[in-house]
What does this fold into?
Amino acid sequence: MIDKRVRSLAEAVAGIPDGAIVLCGGFGSAGLPDALCEAVIEQGARDLTIVANNAGTGRTGLAALLAAGRVKRIICSFPRSAGSVVFEELYAQGRIDLELVPQGTMSERMRCAAAGLGGFYSPVSVGTRLAEGKEHREIDGRLYVLEAPLKGDVALLAAHRGDRWGNLTYRKSARNFNPTMAMAASLSIAQVRQVVELGEIDPEMVVTPGIFVDRVVEVAS
Amino acid sequence: MPLNRRQIAWRAAQDLADGAYVNLGIGLPTLVSDFIPAEREIVLHSENGVLGVGPAPGGNEIDWDLINAGKQPVTLVTGGSFVHHTDSFLMIRGGHLDLALLGAFEVSENGDLANWTTDDPSFPPGVGGAMDLAVGAKEIRVLLEHTTRAGAPRIRRHCGYPLTAASVVRRIYTDLAVIDVTAQGLVVHELVEDVDFPTLQAKTEADLRPASDMKALRAPAF
It folds into this structure.
């Protein structure tokens, strides 16, 4: 019997090792696995590399994990946005490394890892500072740069509904990075607003099939 | 009179073709959604996976699961859909969008775009989807104030700030003019009425020339 449901946030984040690369879903606060991020503080993993579109807002969720000093490096497309106070403090103090990646490149690098591919050539960033040091190749008259796959040791996800097989649905724009990150990590952990019985989710509506998900924890919104 | 920000957005909206799929960048371009001509169906794309962005919600309709690229709450039009990030950027990078309207710090005479960092050491840089949009949409148009607050030109021979993409901008909307980037240089299509051409040129580092049928740039009061 397959049962990926866990009863507590502590059980959900158990075993995340120090130094792990952690993919963290969300765009701004939409689809951000805030409860899982905070559970990692209790769990204790440190020297983490976080991959997330933004670097947290306020002092909760991802920002709380940063504030706890557990993150040495963040791979991000847009770290500074309204309320990103914790990141800005750490960055100004030189206490966090930033790798800036164009948003679509970040997402596609994870998809590549998920798909077992060795990288891809992208026209994005050609002629800019972010292409410096990357292999360039001309294909059909257009210049591209080689981008490497980006695989997570762990993915922290936020979804709307989930079942014991790990099938997930999302709600509106809270979907964002979560489906790609679910596929791109060795251990994918989803906080869901509602755990439902197997079969309750219309198969046509499943966005992330359970094969990509290892643990599901219900977190009341 | 120079146009205000809402009037610049209005002017850009007048050029949107019926049936176009359009991405609006954060900042000034976001205002364009308020001025879509009523008789046209324009599908607005937001990088975070929304195809068919609708108007801002009323106070009791706000849903924080439904936001735009600027993280502001929005609505979805009838017929709209949601996709995940990788597909959203496939739409962007793969040339599926007809047009992206973007903000900018600077544009050069050959259409180079600088809109992601000013290298201000007090701020960490952010690129977001700017580079993806700049090379991916079928056409790039830019909305910006003609000069900085200090009066320095933003339309330059070469961008001083780090580039987002080279040679991508085709049309520029400012508070003073509508300017096309052509193989023969920058051509002014419309100019506000009480600014003469030499004055516009003096506020622009790159060389301009008037279109043979240059018109007055007018917008309703907002």
The first strand of chain A starts at residue 21 and ends at 24.
